[in-house]
Amino acid sequence: VVDGIIGGVGSVLVFLPNILLLYLFISLLEDTGYMARAAFIMDKLMHKIGLHGKSFIPLLIGFGCSVPAIMATRILENKKDRVMTMLIIPLMSCSARLPVYLLLVSAFFSKYQALILLGLYFVGIVLAILVALIMKKTLFKKDSEQFVLELPPYRFPSLRNLGIHIWDRASEYIRKISSVILVASIIIWALGYFPRTGEQTDILDRQIAMLELDEDIPEQQREEQIASLQLQRSMLQKENSFIGKIGKTIEPIMRPLGFDWKMSVSLVTGVAAKEIVVSSMGILYKVEDSENITSLTKALQTEVYASGPRVGQKVFTPLVALAFMLFVLLYVPCTATV
Protein backbone atom coordinates (compact mmCIF):
# COMPACT_ATOMS: atom_id res chain seq x y z
CA VAL A 1 0.00 0.00 0.00
CA VAL A 2 2.70 2.52 1.02
CA ASP A 3 5.36 1.76 -1.61
CA GLY A 4 3.26 0.43 -4.49
CA ILE A 5 0.01 2.42 -4.41
CA ILE A 6 0.77 5.64 -2.49
CA GLY A 7 4.37 5.88 -3.71
CA GLY A 8 3.59 5.06 -7.34
CA VAL A 9 0.28 6.85 -7.87
CA GLY A 10 1.11 9.76 -5.53
CA SER A 11 4.20 10.73 -7.52
CA VAL A 12 1.98 11.16 -10.63
CA LEU A 13 -1.04 12.74 -8.90
CA VAL A 14 1.15 15.61 -7.60
CA PHE A 15 1.44 16.95 -11.19
CA LEU A 16 -2.34 17.39 -11.58
CA PRO A 17 -2.23 21.21 -10.96
CA ASN A 18 0.23 21.69 -13.86
CA ILE A 19 -2.02 19.67 -16.17
CA LEU A 20 -5.12 21.60 -15.05
CA LEU A 21 -3.38 24.87 -16.05
CA LEU A 22 -2.48 23.41 -19.46
CA TYR A 23 -6.11 22.39 -20.08
CA LEU A 24 -7.40 25.75 -18.84
CA PHE A 25 -5.51 27.66 -21.55
CA ILE A 26 -6.46 25.20 -24.30
CA SER A 27 -10.13 25.55 -23.23
CA LEU A 28 -9.83 29.36 -23.33
CA LEU A 29 -8.57 29.18 -26.94
CA GLU A 30 -11.46 26.90 -27.91
CA ASP A 31 -14.23 28.81 -26.13
CA THR A 32 -13.28 32.27 -27.40
CA GLY A 33 -13.50 31.04 -31.02
CA TYR A 34 -9.82 31.74 -31.61
CA MET A 35 -8.89 28.08 -32.23
CA ALA A 36 -10.72 28.05 -35.59
CA ARG A 37 -9.05 31.33 -36.60
CA ALA A 38 -5.65 29.93 -35.64
CA ALA A 39 -6.31 26.99 -37.98
CA PHE A 40 -7.21 29.44 -40.77
CA ILE A 41 -4.09 31.55 -40.13
CA MET A 42 -1.87 28.42 -40.05
CA ASP A 43 -3.23 26.99 -43.34
CA LYS A 44 -0.59 28.56 -45.61
CA LEU A 45 2.28 27.41 -43.37
CA MET A 46 0.76 23.92 -42.94
CA HIS A 47 0.49 23.45 -46.70
CA LYS A 48 4.23 24.10 -47.04
CA ILE A 49 4.96 21.02 -44.93
CA GLY A 50 2.27 18.95 -46.63
CA LEU A 51 -0.46 19.29 -44.01
CA HIS A 52 -3.96 20.77 -44.01
CA GLY A 53 -4.79 23.97 -42.07
CA LYS A 54 -7.16 21.96 -39.89
CA SER A 55 -4.20 19.73 -38.84
CA PHE A 56 -3.16 22.56 -36.54
CA ILE A 57 -6.05 21.81 -34.14
CA PRO A 58 -5.18 18.11 -33.49
CA LEU A 59 -1.48 19.03 -33.24
CA LEU A 60 -2.24 21.68 -30.62
CA ILE A 61 -4.48 19.25 -28.69
CA GLY A 62 -1.50 16.84 -28.84
CA PHE A 63 0.26 19.04 -26.27
CA GLY A 64 -2.50 17.97 -23.87
CA CYS A 65 -2.84 14.29 -24.79
CA SER A 66 -2.12 12.35 -27.98
CA VAL A 67 -5.24 10.16 -27.69
CA PRO A 68 -7.90 12.91 -28.07
CA ALA A 69 -5.58 14.59 -30.60
CA ILE A 70 -5.65 11.49 -32.82
CA MET A 71 -9.43 11.29 -32.36
CA ALA A 72 -9.62 14.97 -33.41
CA THR A 73 -8.08 14.13 -36.82
CA ARG A 74 -11.63 13.09 -37.83
CA ILE A 75 -12.20 16.75 -38.76
CA LEU A 76 -9.86 16.14 -41.75
CA GLU A 77 -11.79 14.83 -44.78
CA ASN A 78 -8.72 13.63 -46.73
CA LYS A 79 -7.28 10.26 -45.59
CA LYS A 80 -3.72 11.32 -46.49
CA ASP A 81 -4.00 14.43 -44.27
CA ARG A 82 -5.45 12.33 -41.43
CA VAL A 83 -2.69 9.71 -41.54
CA MET A 84 0.12 12.27 -41.81
CA THR A 85 -1.28 14.27 -38.90
CA MET A 86 -1.70 11.11 -36.78
CA LEU A 87 1.90 10.05 -37.41
CA ILE A 88 3.42 13.32 -36.20
CA ILE A 89 1.07 13.95 -33.22
CA PRO A 90 3.23 11.77 -30.87
CA LEU A 91 6.14 14.21 -31.43
CA MET A 92 4.14 16.89 -29.60
CA SER A 93 5.13 16.80 -25.90
CA CYS A 94 1.91 15.60 -24.25
CA SER A 95 1.02 16.38 -20.63
CA ALA A 96 2.09 12.83 -19.60
CA ARG A 97 5.69 13.70 -20.49
CA LEU A 98 5.51 16.93 -18.50
CA PRO A 99 6.06 15.23 -15.09
CA VAL A 100 9.29 13.64 -16.42
CA TYR A 101 10.51 17.00 -17.76
CA LEU A 102 9.61 18.90 -14.57
CA LEU A 103 11.31 16.34 -12.34
CA LEU A 104 14.62 16.26 -14.22
CA VAL A 105 14.76 19.96 -15.15
CA SER A 106 14.21 20.99 -11.51
CA ALA A 107 16.74 18.40 -10.26
CA PHE A 108 19.66 19.00 -12.64
CA PHE A 109 19.36 22.49 -14.10
CA SER A 110 19.72 25.33 -11.63
CA LYS A 111 19.75 27.96 -14.43
CA TYR A 112 17.60 28.44 -17.55
CA GLN A 113 15.02 25.86 -16.44
CA ALA A 114 12.19 27.49 -18.43
CA LEU A 115 14.36 27.67 -21.58
CA ILE A 116 15.32 23.98 -21.32
CA LEU A 117 11.67 22.99 -20.89
CA LEU A 118 10.65 25.19 -23.82
CA GLY A 119 13.54 23.74 -25.85
CA LEU A 120 12.18 20.20 -25.41
CA TYR A 121 8.79 21.30 -26.77
CA PHE A 122 10.55 23.12 -29.63
CA VAL A 123 12.63 20.00 -30.53
CA GLY A 124 9.39 18.01 -30.86
CA ILE A 125 7.86 20.67 -33.15
CA VAL A 126 10.98 20.88 -35.37
CA LEU A 127 11.15 17.07 -35.68
CA ALA A 128 7.42 16.93 -36.50
CA ILE A 129 8.01 19.45 -39.34
CA LEU A 130 10.98 17.44 -40.66
CA VAL A 131 9.04 14.16 -40.54
CA ALA A 132 6.07 15.81 -42.31
CA LEU A 133 8.38 17.16 -45.06
CA ILE A 134 9.96 13.71 -45.57
CA MET A 135 6.53 12.03 -45.77
CA LYS A 136 5.31 14.74 -48.17
CA LYS A 137 8.15 13.91 -50.58
CA THR A 138 7.96 10.11 -50.18
CA LEU A 139 4.79 8.39 -48.95
CA PHE A 140 2.24 11.19 -49.53
CA LYS A 141 3.07 13.07 -52.72
CA LYS A 142 -0.52 14.06 -53.57
CA ASP A 143 -1.46 17.66 -52.64
CA SER A 144 -3.81 18.39 -49.74
CA GLU A 145 -7.37 19.54 -50.33
CA GLN A 146 -8.18 23.26 -50.26
CA PHE A 147 -8.98 24.71 -46.85
CA VAL A 148 -12.66 25.36 -46.05
CA LEU A 149 -13.73 26.27 -42.51
CA GLU A 150 -16.70 28.04 -40.97
CA LEU A 151 -15.43 30.63 -38.49
CA PRO A 152 -17.55 30.91 -35.32
CA PRO A 153 -18.11 34.41 -33.90
CA TYR A 154 -15.80 35.67 -31.17
CA ARG A 155 -17.40 35.20 -27.78
CA PHE A 156 -16.52 35.68 -24.15
CA PRO A 157 -15.81 32.26 -22.55
CA SER A 158 -18.27 31.27 -19.83
CA LEU A 159 -16.94 30.04 -16.51
CA ARG A 160 -19.42 27.15 -16.65
CA ASN A 161 -18.04 25.87 -19.98
CA LEU A 162 -14.44 26.30 -18.81
CA GLY A 163 -15.27 24.40 -15.64
CA ILE A 164 -16.89 21.55 -17.60
CA HIS A 165 -13.94 21.25 -20.02
CA ILE A 166 -11.33 21.27 -17.25
CA TRP A 167 -13.36 18.84 -15.13
CA ASP A 168 -13.79 16.40 -18.06
CA ARG A 169 -10.09 16.40 -18.87
CA ALA A 170 -8.93 16.31 -15.24
CA SER A 171 -11.32 13.44 -14.46
CA GLU A 172 -9.94 11.57 -17.51
CA TYR A 173 -6.41 12.02 -16.11
CA ILE A 174 -7.54 10.84 -12.65
CA ARG A 175 -9.31 7.82 -14.22
CA LYS A 176 -6.06 6.92 -15.94
CA ILE A 177 -4.20 7.23 -12.62
CA SER A 178 -6.78 5.04 -10.85
CA SER A 179 -6.70 2.34 -13.53
CA VAL A 180 -3.70 1.94 -15.86
CA ILE A 181 -1.16 3.68 -13.62
CA LEU A 182 -2.45 2.04 -10.42
CA VAL A 183 -2.19 -1.47 -11.90
CA ALA A 184 1.19 -0.73 -13.48
CA SER A 185 2.53 0.75 -10.20
CA ILE A 186 1.50 -2.38 -8.25
CA ILE A 187 3.08 -4.67 -10.90
CA ILE A 188 6.32 -2.63 -10.90
CA TRP A 189 6.37 -2.64 -7.08
CA ALA A 190 5.85 -6.46 -7.03
CA LEU A 191 8.61 -7.00 -9.60
CA GLY A 192 10.93 -4.85 -7.47
CA TYR A 193 9.87 -6.44 -4.15
CA PHE A 194 10.31 -10.13 -5.05
CA PRO A 195 12.27 -12.34 -4.56
CA ARG A 196 12.90 -11.25 -0.96
CA THR A 197 15.81 -13.57 -0.13
CA GLY A 198 19.20 -14.42 -1.57
CA GLU A 199 22.60 -15.58 -0.36
CA GLN A 200 24.05 -12.05 -0.05
CA THR A 201 20.93 -10.57 1.60
CA ASP A 202 20.82 -13.47 4.10
CA ILE A 203 24.43 -12.74 5.11
CA LEU A 204 23.57 -9.05 5.63
CA ASP A 205 20.45 -10.02 7.66
CA ARG A 206 22.64 -12.10 9.98
CA GLN A 207 25.16 -9.25 10.36
CA ILE A 208 22.32 -6.82 11.22
CA ALA A 209 20.89 -9.27 13.78
CA MET A 210 24.33 -9.74 15.41
CA LEU A 211 24.88 -5.97 15.61
CA GLU A 212 21.46 -5.45 17.23
CA LEU A 213 22.40 -7.95 19.96
CA ASP A 214 25.97 -6.63 20.47
CA GLU A 215 25.88 -4.32 23.50
CA ASP A 216 29.68 -3.76 23.60
CA ILE A 217 29.51 -1.25 20.70
CA PRO A 218 28.33 2.30 21.60
CA GLU A 219 24.67 2.84 20.68
CA GLN A 220 25.23 5.63 18.12
CA GLN A 221 27.98 3.68 16.34
CA ARG A 222 25.81 0.54 16.33
CA GLU A 223 22.86 2.42 14.80
CA GLU A 224 25.08 3.92 12.06
CA GLN A 225 26.48 0.48 11.17
CA ILE A 226 22.98 -1.06 11.11
CA ALA A 227 21.67 1.78 8.88
CA SER A 228 24.61 1.28 6.48
CA LEU A 229 24.00 -2.47 6.27
CA GLN A 230 20.24 -1.98 5.77
CA LEU A 231 20.90 0.43 2.89
CA GLN A 232 23.34 -2.05 1.36
CA ARG A 233 20.73 -4.82 1.74
CA SER A 234 18.02 -2.67 0.12
CA MET A 235 20.26 -1.92 -2.90
CA LEU A 236 21.21 -5.60 -3.27
CA GLN A 237 17.59 -6.70 -3.02
CA LYS A 238 16.51 -4.25 -5.74
CA GLU A 239 19.38 -5.28 -7.99
CA ASN A 240 18.52 -8.99 -7.62
CA SER A 241 14.74 -8.53 -7.93
CA PHE A 242 12.79 -9.46 -11.07
CA ILE A 243 12.72 -5.85 -12.26
CA GLY A 244 16.46 -5.56 -11.60
CA LYS A 245 17.06 -8.58 -13.84
CA ILE A 246 14.94 -7.04 -16.63
CA GLY A 247 16.92 -3.79 -16.31
CA LYS A 248 20.26 -5.62 -16.31
CA THR A 249 19.24 -7.49 -19.49
CA ILE A 250 18.54 -4.30 -21.47
CA GLU A 251 21.21 -2.14 -19.79
CA PRO A 252 23.99 -2.94 -22.36
CA ILE A 253 21.79 -1.51 -25.14
CA MET A 254 21.09 1.68 -23.14
CA ARG A 255 24.58 2.13 -21.63
CA PRO A 256 25.98 4.25 -24.54
CA LEU A 257 23.26 6.80 -23.71
CA GLY A 258 24.42 6.95 -20.08
CA PHE A 259 21.34 5.12 -18.74
CA ASP A 260 21.63 2.59 -15.91
CA TRP A 261 19.30 -0.38 -15.31
CA LYS A 262 16.83 1.66 -13.26
CA MET A 263 16.40 4.23 -16.04
CA SER A 264 16.08 1.38 -18.57
CA VAL A 265 13.29 -0.24 -16.53
CA SER A 266 11.49 3.12 -16.15
CA LEU A 267 11.51 3.55 -19.93
CA VAL A 268 10.16 0.03 -20.51
CA THR A 269 7.29 0.62 -18.07
CA GLY A 270 6.65 4.03 -19.70
CA VAL A 271 5.39 2.28 -22.83
CA ALA A 272 2.11 1.63 -20.94
CA ALA A 273 1.75 5.35 -20.05
CA LYS A 274 4.42 8.06 -19.91
CA GLU A 275 3.35 9.14 -16.41
CA ILE A 276 4.54 5.74 -15.15
CA VAL A 277 8.18 6.73 -15.84
CA VAL A 278 8.08 9.01 -12.76
CA SER A 279 6.19 6.52 -10.57
CA SER A 280 8.64 3.76 -11.63
CA MET A 281 11.55 5.95 -10.55
CA GLY A 282 9.78 6.64 -7.24
CA ILE A 283 9.55 2.89 -6.62
CA LEU A 284 13.01 1.91 -7.95
CA TYR A 285 14.81 4.66 -6.02
CA LYS A 286 12.82 3.65 -2.90
CA VAL A 287 11.29 7.02 -2.10
CA GLU A 288 9.19 6.40 0.99
CA ASP A 289 8.41 9.66 2.77
CA SER A 290 5.45 11.95 2.18
CA GLU A 291 7.40 14.68 0.34
CA ASN A 292 7.61 12.36 -2.62
CA ILE A 293 8.97 14.57 -5.40
CA THR A 294 11.51 16.37 -3.20
CA SER A 295 12.82 13.02 -1.97
CA LEU A 296 12.91 11.59 -5.51
CA THR A 297 14.84 14.66 -6.71
CA LYS A 298 17.41 14.14 -3.92
CA ALA A 299 17.60 10.41 -4.68
CA LEU A 300 18.36 11.11 -8.36
CA GLN A 301 20.94 13.76 -7.50
CA THR A 302 22.82 11.45 -5.09
CA GLU A 303 22.51 8.12 -6.98
CA VAL A 304 25.93 6.58 -7.76
CA TYR A 305 27.05 3.44 -9.58
CA ALA A 306 27.44 0.58 -7.08
CA SER A 307 29.54 -1.60 -9.41
CA GLY A 308 31.28 -1.69 -12.79
CA PRO A 309 33.91 0.63 -14.31
CA ARG A 310 32.10 3.78 -13.14
CA VAL A 311 31.71 2.69 -9.50
CA GLY A 312 31.26 5.69 -7.18
CA GLN A 313 30.46 8.08 -10.05
CA LYS A 314 27.09 9.84 -10.20
CA VAL A 315 24.51 8.14 -12.43
CA PHE A 316 22.68 11.36 -13.34
CA THR A 317 24.46 14.39 -14.77
CA PRO A 318 22.81 17.33 -16.60
CA LEU A 319 23.82 15.74 -19.93
CA VAL A 320 22.36 12.32 -19.00
CA ALA A 321 19.17 14.03 -17.73
CA LEU A 322 18.82 15.90 -21.04
CA ALA A 323 19.42 12.70 -23.04
CA PHE A 324 16.80 10.91 -20.93
CA MET A 325 14.20 13.66 -21.52
CA LEU A 326 14.87 13.61 -25.28
CA PHE A 327 14.52 9.81 -25.27
CA VAL A 328 11.15 10.12 -23.49
CA LEU A 329 10.09 12.66 -26.14
CA LEU A 330 11.09 10.49 -29.11
CA TYR A 331 10.55 6.83 -28.21
CA VAL A 332 7.37 4.73 -28.50
CA PRO A 333 4.20 6.63 -27.53
CA CYS A 334 1.90 5.12 -24.90
CA THR A 335 -0.18 2.04 -25.70
CA ALA A 336 -3.43 4.06 -25.83
CA THR A 337 -1.91 6.30 -28.56
CA VAL A 338 -0.61 3.30 -30.53
Features:
mainly alpha
Explain this structure.
The radius of gyration is 24 Å and the shape is elongated. 67% of the residues lie in helices and 0% in strands. The longest helix is centred in the middle third of the chain and has 35 residues. The chain is mostly helical and 338 residues long. The model has no long low-confidence stretch (mean pLDDT 83).
- Beta percentage is under 5%
Q: Could you report the average pLDDT, rounded to the nearest whole number?
A: 83
Describe the global form. elongated
Largest β sheet strand count, sense and barrel closure:
none
Low-confidence stretches: none
Query: How many helices does DSSP assign?
Result: 16
How are helices and strands ordered from N to C?
A: HHHHHHHHHHHHHHHH
List how many beta strands DSSP finds: 0
What is the helix fraction of residues, given as a range? 55-70%
How far is the first residue's CA from the last residue's CA?
Answer: 31 Å
Radius of gyration: 24 Å
Structural class: mainly alpha
In brief:
With 338 residues, the protein is an all-alpha fold. The chain has helices at 2-13, 16-31, 34-48, 56-61, 66-71, 79-88, 98-108, 113-137, 159-193, 199-213, 219-240, 242-254, 261-269, 276-284, 292-302, 318-330. The model has no long low-confidence stretch (mean pLDDT 83).
How are the elements arranged and paired?
Layout (H helix, E strand, L loop, with lengths): L1 H12 L2 H16 L2 H15 L7 H6 L4 H6 L7 H10 L9 H11 L4 H25 L21 H35 L5 H15 L5 H22 L1 H13 L6 H9 L6 H9 L7 H11 L15 H13 L8
Helix pairs in contact: 1-9, 1-14, 2-9, 7-8, 7-15, 7-16, 9-14, 10-11, 12-13, 13-14
